[in-house]
Write a structure and sequence with these properties.
disordered N terminus, about 300 residues, 14 strands, 6 helices, single chain
């Protein structure tokens, strides 16, 4: 990074800090936040986001909907941008599943009696199970409480003040405007994007565009700490939505980290909901990722 870029970066961070102090006073006086440009909101978030290379966690997880009701414990080990390892156990503590994710590979073992199998493949099976597109970096972002799918080098946003939070609303293309009937400048953070089009017209628009052109991204950040509070994805191509909400942010040696997460996936036919709490976490320890396929397990083509 050049000296010029360092100076600019420092000024933006300083401005963000000054704005944070100003916003504290404004909120104390019952006044709304002062809006900031999208790049300043993102820099404020990046300044407090956790910096890590290795991470281990114990999670307490509940899942409901789509025929997947239940609760379990999960041990998670992560090497940043390289590997995600998970061991799944019910309340009694006997491992029933093991997962190993690499940037382009998914490996899964089910140890449930009567349903013992293994899967090795790409992320299509995992995306089908979740009923929403997922990549390695999506899973890493979800588990570490970072904004999912926030591509600061590509995405363009409009910023809005939403109560005590900042909302970044992704700019969208002309075909989306035709679907939702409003342009992005008029879109408020909480506006519903459920499309109410006659099926024939919807199919015509869908057939003339790419799925990425019909994906609306919205991200919310705390107005004082810039913690990434919520992500909302409205997929107008497949008529589904994904919401991630994070809470209980704490200061750690690596940066601010959320200790609770809520995920809601909605499709035309059903909903899948997942909640978890981080019971323990540890940064900086190098982990092994043991993953051996037991003898006699059936290989399957999906999850």
């Amino acid at each position: 990074m050049s000296i010029r870029h360092l100076v600019i970066y420092g000024l933006l961070i300083t401005a963000g800090g000054i704005s944070g102090c100003s916003n504290s006073a404004r909120i104390a006086r019952g006044k709304p936040l002062k809006n900031l440009p999208p790049n300043q909101i993102i820099l404020g978030f990046e300044a407090n986001a956790p910096k890590w290379e290795w991470l281990g966690m114990k999670l307490d997880v509940e899942v409901s909907g789509a025929g997947q009701n239940g609760s379990f414990k999960a041990s998670v080990r992560m090497a940043q941008d390289s590997a995600i390892w998970m061991s799944i156990s019910p309340a009694l503590g006997v491992e029933v599943a093991r997962i190993l994710l690499a940037p382009d590979t998914v490996m899964f073992i089910s140890k449930i009696p009567g349903n013992k199998f293994f899967y090795t493949g790409n992320y299509e099976a995992l995306s089908e199970w979740a009923d929403t597109p997922l990549s390695f970096h999506d899973v890493q972002s979800i588990l570490t409480g970072q904004p999912m799918g926030l591509n600061t080098g590509v995405d363009k946003f409009i910023s809005r003040v939403d109560g005590h939070e900042y909302a970044l609303i992704g700019k969208y293309k002309r075909r989306v405007k035709r679907m939702v009937g409003v342009n992005d400048n008029a879109l408020e953070p909480e506006d519903s994007l459920n499309i109410q089009l006659p099926m024939r017209r919807y199919e015509r628009l869908k057939n003339r565009t790419e799925d990425e052109d019909l994906l609306i991204k919205r991200h919310w950040f705390d107005g004082l700490t810039f913690d990434p509070i919520r992500d909302q994805f409205d997929d107008l191509y497949y008529q589904r939505s994904l919401t991630l909400e994070r809470s209980n942010f704490v200061a750690t040696e690596a940066g601010r980290f959320p200790e609770a997460c809520h995920i809601l996936i909605r499709t035309v036919n059903e909903e899948l909901e997942m909640n978890w709490e981080v019971m323990r976490k540890r940064f900086g320890r190098a982990y092994d990722f043991p993953f051996g396929i037991p003898e006699g397990y059936e290989e399957r083509k999906g999850l």
